[in-house]
Amino acid sequence: MMMDTTCPNCGSGHAYSDGTLWNCPDCGHEWNPQTETAGAAEETAPAVRDANGNALADGDSVTVIKDLKVKGSSLVVKGGTKVKNIRLTDGADGHNIACRIDGIGAMNLKSEFVKKA
User: Fold this and answer.
1) Residues spanned by the domain of 34
2) Chain mean position to CA 3
């Protein structure tokens, strides 16, 4: 059986086996060919992370870390505002959290401006 010797991380053809793992001298990536195909589906879904690097999930509560102006309005979401029951979305404009804020209503936030509560 012929093994594919290209690095799944950078695509380099210079990968070599050290007995148990394959190594790429160009990018330093190490992988096991038996588990690499099973783990590929898990790596494709990027996790949404807050300003501190914590992974966020649907239903989490977050706290806004700075004052945010609401576009098209004179309203401001103050820093320290707690937002409950968020929904993660894949907004093309970078707004990857859909939520409802008391006093303002439904809106979208960027995960870089919140921290997990």
Assistant:
1) 1-41
2) 32
Same-domain pairing of 31 and 67: no
Quick: pLDDT tens for 65-109. 999 999 899 999 999 999 999 999 987 788 999 999 999 999 999
Residue 28 shares a structural domain with residue 70: no
Q: What is the β-pairing status of strands 76-77 and 82-83?
A: unpaired
- Report whether 22 contacts 33 (CB < 8 A): yes
Query: Residue 71 in contact with residue 109, Cβ under 8 Å?
Result: no
Q: Model pTM? A: 0.61
The residue assigned the tokens 């409950």 is: 84
Q: Classify residue 99: in a domain, yes or no.
A: yes
List the structure tokens of 61: 């509560």
